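Example record used in the benchmark description.
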Amino acid sequence: MIETLFATHVLVKDFPEYSESWTNTIKGAVKAHFAENSMKEDAQRSKSHSTRLFSEDNMNSVPELRELRGLMLGGFQRLASSYPQDHGEEYGDSVALTDDAIAELTGDDLGRLPIVQQNQRMAVHNHTNTEAFAIFYLQDIDHAREGGQLILHDPSWHHMVSMYNTKTHAIDARRNRLVVVPGHVWHEVTPYHGEQRLNVVLNMRQPYLG
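Model output (structure tokens):
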């Protein structure tokens, strides 16, 4: 008997019910937020590539940001619920990913810089000390013409020679598409040749490190 073990779950969910106007409001908020932060100490920002987009002040000023954060937290919860939640004996109660726990583990950080410039790429990497990361795309990308596609790698990609199904999986960037991936999954973004684009990225820390 052949069994499938150690399956990796990834959430890809589109939100067509949210209008282009809603998305453009978030784009404007992200641009304004980073324009403001660019005037602050560059050295400090470059260390973490992280800012407080989802601060209470920002979410009160732009209610769409609060809605977006809710969608992303819901994505973390949905991915978590696709895995067994009975790891208490191994790690203790702190590993239980309740709604409150996920909100605490994400904080109000934006994660890595969401502005992708022309000719920029992201080399293969994963997110250290991160249980999962979420990407929310704010525009459609024609990958055949512009590149900039998210490529996920089989977690064992660097060891397998012949016994594997597929080593990579490509995910298209679509407006109002949410992608949530376990933090250990290696991934990259192919070189992007279009105009400046915006994504929103949020990391969820590992529970037992929090």
